[in-house]
Design brief:
alpha/beta; D-Maltodextrin-Binding Protein, domain 2; 2 domains; five-stranded mixed beta sheet; 14 helices; 14 strands; about 35% helix
């Protein structure tokens, strides 16, 4: 069972299944994003009261936590609880009506769409940032600078287990793997893009032995502290650990001349393929209609998503995408646009 932490003030917790409770306090664990530049708060925002519960992705969680930290400066009487239990675990709670916001590093699945529909949970989907799943090795590994997606698949399928199988000039060193666990949206996305589907259309799961975790900080420590370490996680976690890790460039077509290193520019443009992806938040429609605190928080979150994402090491989404999300927020609050769940629901649901 994962531990649970409750912190007063704006301390940022980057741990799996961690809960952060935010409201006014003089304590601060890290510097927040500068004052909002795209958001104009209502005159009475300091009097706003209410509570908001969020859960889900370990990749999106730090962005939502940073947004909550900064929003508490404006609305100190709004209580925001942010948990990180992985995209899959978060969707379980969200579709059971336990949370207002679902952080997701992948789109909602068909099974989750059906679960939400069965429980009468309508929702809106908003894009808030971009991420590139980053393949990493320890800083001491200076020989593996690029690999093809085909080689990457062979490693996670258990077919390639030593670095000298990738290239005979590489050292005779066993590969020790670290990656997301099955509750993580990063796990789902990586497997779909790298391992593909079987003949029945099911996404293939890794056959190789590896150390799984929903806590990306555990994966950072595992790879950086293991001589033959190789793993993957969201770009923001690599950003904060570049002194201990090297990123491996990826070539989708196998041509070493087409190796692409993950950077904010290559991720945003999706040149870093196929591991670039949008990051999403899902908002429960009934909560958005009934909770003024949630309405104002989502307005703030989308308006300042670019600055907040960048402050956490994530990649800001294109300005036009965020502008569309901001417009959608206002229409959702006004009730002039149907929840996305109504178009996503399957006939069976």
């Amino acid at each position: 069972m994962f531990g649970t932490y409750r912190l007063l003030g704006r301390a940022l917790a980057l741990f799996a299944a961690v809960t952060v409770l935010l409201f006014a306090s003089p304590a601060r664990a890290q510097e927040s994003t500068p004052a909002a530049s795209n958001y104009t708060p209502p005159a009475d925002i300091a009097d706003l009261e209410g509570s908001i519960v969020a859960d889900g992705s370990s990749t999106v969680g730090p962005i939502t936590t940073a947004a909550a930290e900064n929003f508490s400066d404006l609305a100190p009487n709004v209580e925001i609880e942010v948990s990180i239990s992985g995209t899959g675990g978060g969707f379980t709670r969200f579709c059971e009506g336990e949370t207002d916001i679902q952080d997701a590093s992948r789109p909602i699945s068909e099974d989750e769409v059906a679960s939400c529909a069965e429980n009468g949970i309508d929702y809106y989907e908003f894009e808030i940032a971009y991420d590139g799943i980053t393949i990493v090795v320890p800083e001491s590994n200076t020989f593996l600078t690029c690999m093809s997606t085909e080689v990457l698949a062979a490693i996670w399928n258990g077919e390639t287990t030593n670095f000298n199988q990738i290239n005979p000039d590489f050292p005779d060193l066993e590969i020790q793997l670290f990656g997301a666990d099955s509750e993580s949206g990063t796990y789902d996305y990586f497997n779909e893009q790298i391992l593909g589907e079987d003949d029945a259309g099911e996404v293939i799961e890794p056959a190789a032995d590896y150390e799984p975790s929903s806590d990306d900080n555990v994966l950072v420590e595992g790879v950086s502290g293991t001589e033959g370490g190789l793993g993957y996680f969201g770009y923001s976690y690599f950003e904060t650990a570049q002194d201990r890790l090297n990123a491996v460039a990826i070539t989708a077509d196998g041509d070493p001349n087409n190796c692409v290193t993950p950077t904010p520019d290559t991720i945003r443009s999706q040149e870093y393929a196929p591991l670039s992806r949008p990051l999403l938040v899902y908002v429960k429609a009934s909560s958005l209609a009934e909770n003024p605190a949630l309405q104002e928080f989502i307005r703030y979150y989308i308006a300042e998503a670019s600055a907040i994402a960048t402050s956490t090491g994530a990649v800001d989404a294109p300005a036009e995408d965020l502008a569309a999300s901001a417009e959608k927020v206002e229409r959702a609050i006004a009730g002039s646009v149907a929840p996305d769940s109504q178009s996503m629901a399957t006939p069976e649901a």
